[in-house]
Amino acid sequence: MLATASAPLDIRFGLDRRVALPGPFALVSGQRLAGLDIAYETYGTLAADGGNAILVCHALTGDQHVASVHPRTGKPGWWARLVGPGQPIDPARHFVICANVLGGCGGSSGPGSIDPATGARYAMAFPVITIRDMVNAQAALLDHLGVGVLQAVVGGSMGGMQALDWAVAHPARVRSVVAIATAARHSAQNIAFHEVGRQAIMADPMWLGGNYPERQPPAAGLAVARMAAHITYLSEEGLTEKFGRRLQDREALGFGFDAEFQVESYLRHQGLAFVERFDANSYLYITRAMDYFDLAAPHDGVLAKAFAGTRSRFALVSFTSDWLYPTAESRRIVRALNAACAAVSFVELESPFGHDAFLLEAPEMNRVVDGFLRAGA
Amino acid sequence: MTLRPDLAAIAEAVPAGARVLDIGCGDGALLSYLRDTKNVDARGIDVSAANVAGAVARGLSVVQGDADADLPDYPDQAFDMAILSDTLQAMRRPGAVLDQLVRIAGRAVVSFPNFGHWRVRGSLLFGGHMPVTPSLPVSWHETSNIHFCTVDDFRDLVAERGLHVKSAAFLSGGTRRGARLANLLAEQAVFVLAR
């Protein structure tokens, strides 16, 4: 196909892109990666002045397919409710970028990548990475794409952590930050749940110290990790409403250990489906990165200092039934931003769906994000 | 765009280009007016999620929160003007809120319904019931207004807190009126305060 003059073909832009950026890429741990592979997608057209770029950051088990059909699962983009035609982030107006995080298993450098030093997969020899490393990898991608300053960086959950960290790590490159259902640090409870997941993976004999063959992953351990995590994404209210104590395909208790309750059956399904699309070692590395996240730590625990002098605008959204990253964590960020005299908006929205609310139909969230982005355009 | 008369009286007190925090900003009607006509740096706080969503959708920086709890988070003199419109009477600790206003801003603009208005007095005197008037439309058990005061009460509180009245405006029936007998004749009062 010939490129037209108005829309020259540029292999950097479009769906399902990959780039190998030259290293060395320095990590927070002090280690270095020889090079940086990033799998990403872009939507829309970068304005001549570069002013319409929006980076969308994905959550723990998300990927770069924010608004396109997932090539493996065939499911629609994970945030098509927010990103897409007629949505607050609209490729007709915005140049949207979404990249698989460093450490991920969607094509970016991670424990499943080949270690150039050995010619074999890194597995647990991959260096431990942080949210800051993920953000710096995204910054390197933006350099490659020719994007200087972002109109906005937008994310929920771990994506929100990246969005907040963008404003701290690269303040001059972010005009607006949208951080949804997130926190500026991982709490003891957050770390505790992640540790359950990691131990489930490591306790699976198939894990083999991380050196499992690609086709024989520690599926049972990863599924249990997902089951435990999935509970934290829902709310008691939501679980009760959806399942109650109802039984699965039976009239009476079976006095056994099959998935007799609907909620058991549901969780088992979630665990098994997850194994199909996610790598166990990536799960270890990314949960670790989240546990290490604490924006205030380098500033004597004073979060406001992390944001001192920021010129970015911020919008934070929390959900009433989210107990993973509860409203109190968002308020803590808001307080710090107020103390830093930053332009900040914050709203706690009603939802019975727990942490997952940010991925579901949330018209009020869309309204807030839309108004916030338009005002900063 | 026309502002409610009490909001217009507040807007008059705000200089162009000021850094403004509107506490109890509702859906941001006053703030967006100030932003569009006076080019102020507009920030707001409101307790209602629906109001905040509306204000953010207007492009304002508004935080869901509550003046009683959240004002201490702001640094000293972060703003030129702190606005508390029709909200003081809903505060748990109105005196402490006034202190916060003049701590975070050089000037505070405070508007409130005057409980000394003759209609209120008449309602109590002749009806024997808590007043329900055009400016106080909600009955006593449903109102969020827990700390009503009169114009003279407010002046006393201002003096007790060591603050100064820079100017005052009074309204009744939606129009401005003089300061004379304001405690009896004004339905609403708008005070500009400083430390």
Describe this structure in words.
The complex is a heterodimer of chains A (about 375) and B (about 200). By secondary structure, chain A is α/β, with parallel strands linked by helices. Chain A has helices at about 130-145, 160-170, 190-205, 220-235, 235-240, 260-275, 280-290, 305, 325-340, 365-375; strands at about 15-25, 30-45, 55, 95-100, 150-155, 175-180, 315-320, 345-350. Chain A is about 35% helix and about 15% strand. An 8-stranded mixed β-sheet of chain A has the order 1-2-4-3-5-6-7-8, sandwiched between helices. In chain A, helix 1 crosses helix 2 and helix 3 (about 190-205) runs antiparallel to helix 7 (about 280-290). With about 200 residues, chain B is of the alpha/beta class. Chain B has one domain: Vaccinia Virus protein VP39 (Rossmann fold, 3-Layer(aba) Sandwich). Helices cover about 35% and strands about 25% of the residues of chain B. Chain B has 8 helices and 8 strands. In chain B, strands 3-2-1-4-5-8-6-7 form an 8-stranded mixed β-sheet, with helices on both faces. Chain B is globular, with a radius of gyration of 16 Å. The interface of A and B includes residues 338 and 349 of A.
Structural class assignment of chain B:
alpha/beta
Distance from N terminus to C terminus of chain A (CA atoms, Å) equals 34 Å
Task: Tally the beta strands of chain A.
Answer: 8
Please tell me the overall pLDDT of chain A. 95
**What's the helical proportion of residues of chain B?**
25-40%
Strand content of chain A: 15-25%
CATH topology of the largest domain in chain A: Rossmann fold
Dominant shape of chain B: globular
Count of runs of 4 or more consecutive helical residues of chain B: 8
What is the element string of chain A, with H for helices and E for strands? EEEEHEHEHHHHHHEHEH
Quaternary state of this entry equals: heterodimer
CATH architecture of chain B: 3-Layer(aba) Sandwich
CATH topology of chain B: Rossmann fold
CATH class of chain B: Alpha Beta
Main sheet: strand order of chain A? 1-2-4-3-5-6-7-8
As a percent range, the share of strand residues of chain B is 25-35%
Radius of gyration of chain A: 21 Å
DSSP summary: helix tally of chain A: 10
Q: Report how far the terminal alpha carbons of chain B are from each other.
A: 33 Å
